[in-house]
Write a structure and sequence with these properties.
By secondary structure, this protein is an alpha/beta fold. It has helices at 17-36, 81-94, 110-122, and strands at residues 49-50, 61-66, 72-74, 77-79, 99-104, 128-130, 133-134. A hairpin with a 5-residue loop joins strand 2 (61-66) and strand 3.
């Protein structure tokens, strides 16, 4: 014979609404942290200053740098003329709409920067931005 207990028996429940709130908070926190990270691709050069500089936020870009001695850099790798052209052509095939930022050291010769621009255009990119250090955004890292 089965006799029931006088104490009411409740089944355990897992409340899921507080868990959903926590997951949304974590998702938003990780998104904000990942958006605030700056991805620098180029080498450190002494950029000239300008008043009309704007900060670029799009991450898909190619950085070509010319240092004061006339050496060319693709992202952070030092390359020669032919290697720079080959890497730019490869980048153009994989991402034809990527932005190209040309960084010329303030003390580099104009001829070296013009030659780098010629190499960039012969690889298929025709929209090239010159990277400068904005007077209003001094101290803020990232492409401008």
């Amino acid at each position: 014979m089965y006799v029931s207990s006088p104490i009411p028996h409740k089944k355990a429940r897992i409340e899921i609404i507080p868990l959903i709130d926590i997951m949304f908070f974590l998702l938003a926190s990780f998104m904000m942290v990942s958006l605030s990270q700056v991805h620098l691709k180029g080498i450190k050069v002494n950029l000239p200053s300008g008043v009309s500089g704007e900060t670029q936020t799009k991450r898909e870009y190619v950085s070509v740098s010319v240092d004061k001695d006339g050496h060319y850099f693709f992202d952070k790798d030092e390359v020669g003329d032919d290697e720079l052209l080959n890497r730019l052509r490869t980048a153009h095939q994989s991402a034809p709409d990527a932005k190209v930022f040309l960084r010329g050291d303030r003390d580099s010769a104009h001829l070296n920067v013009a030659h780098a621009l010629d190499i960039i255009r012969s690889s298929g990119y025709y929209k090239v931005s010159f990277e400068i250090k904005s007077e209003s955004l001094k101290g803020v890292p990232g492409p401008r």
